[in-house]
Amino acid sequence: MAVHELKPKNTDSEKITINLGPVDLGQIDLLVQEGFYANRTDLIRTAIRNQLAQHGEAIRQTVARKSLVLGMQHYSRADLEAVQAAGERLQIQVLGLASIAPDVPAELALATIESITVLGALHASAAVRSALAGRIH
């Protein structure tokens, strides 16, 4: 089971939707128009990163306290088969991206994954997501 540090990449990003009032949106557009930011997304990403940096110590403490894997955790079919052979079950806790290989059958996921807590994104086949629906928090 590999753990990798996450680096911001457009291909690894998740889309979110936010609602803003017209005055806030107008102020954002003004800053973009005046050249402070390349576009709305640039301003929003910068604001989010600034807030995350401001709360960095609280994030680090919480990650440690909750024993979260920080970054990317990938589970291959071979990983889960090894867990099954050892008679173990996983409690997956990730802040970032957790991914389960597309070739993992739902039955194997059910037999080896006790629970999944992901703060970020979970990539898994529709069959695995459906099978684990009651175990995803």
UniProtKB/TrEMBL annotation:
Gene3D superfamilies per UniProt: Met repressor-like
Origin organism lineage: Bacteria, Pseudomonadati, Pseudomonadota, Betaproteobacteria, Burkholderiales
Gene Ontology biological process terms, A to Z: regulation of DNA-templated transcription
Protein name stated in the entry: CopG family transcriptional regulator
Pfam families per UniProt: RHH_8 (PF17723)
Organism of provenance: Pseudoduganella rivuli
Domain of life: Bacteria
InterPro entries: Arc_rbn_hlx_hlx (IPR013321), RHH_8 (IPR041088), Ribbon_hlx_hlx (IPR010985)
Leader sequence residues: none
